[in-house]
Write a structure and sequence with these properties.
The protein is α/β, with parallel strands linked by helices and 162 residues long. Helix content is 25%, strand content 30%. 30% of the residues are buried. The chain starts with a strand and ends with a helix. The strands form 2 sheets. Strands 2-1-3-6-7 form a 5-stranded parallel β-sheet. It has a two-stranded antiparallel ribbon with strand order 4-5. It is globular and about 45 Å long.
């Protein structure tokens, strides 16, 4: 299943939804993570807050391919995208395991194929390197076999990258 998480405006919604199995708009119409870890322990992969991110852990956890479309914010994703990713911590468990010679949380949903980040907006070379590093590390931590980062000079290029 291909899931696209995006922070671009609603004018891109139809185009994005045609390119995936599930799309999720990081539009900021949800509460930030409260850090309670309930999605890890009390009610696995479900947030106690009953908003549009209530089951985001399951949606992201079941994705074979996760595509994140985000505006550059100092070499990281936008606040709205980061909020969704924070609320998806329940895709793993609190238990730890060695993967690739490093300690990581045990995956609740198993391995995935591709963690792809599509970045738009002005991006310096240092920010590009930060994005590449974050994508590689997040892919490993969340059990993705590969990571890819694409930088768009113009949002008109978005459709060709999905």
């Amino acid at each position: 299943m291909k899931v696209i998480l995006y922070d671009v405006g609603p004018e891109y919604k139809d185009m994005i939804e045609r390119r995936c199995d599930r799309a999720f708009a990081a539009d900021g119409r949800f509460a930030p993570c409260q850090g309670c870890f309930g999605c890890w322990t009390k009610h696995p992969a479900e947030c106690f807050m009953k908003d549009s991110l209530h089951r985001v852990c399951r949606l992201i956890g079941e994705a074979d391919e996760l595509v994140i479309v985000t505006k550059n914010l100092y070499g990281g994703c936008s606040a709205e995208v980061k909020n969704v990713l924070d609320r998806s911590i329940g895709t793993s468990t609190p238990l730890s395991v060695y993967r690739g010679g490093q300690m990581h949380h045990t995956l609740r949903y198993g391995r995935h194929e591709l963690w792809k980040v599509i970045v738009y907006g002005d991006v310096t070379e240092a920010e590009r390197e930060t994005f590449r590093l974050l994508a590689r590390r997040n892919a490993i931590n969340d059990g993705y076999r590969r990571a890819e980062v694409v930088f768009l000079a113009d949002l008109a290029e978005l459709e060709g990258q999905l």
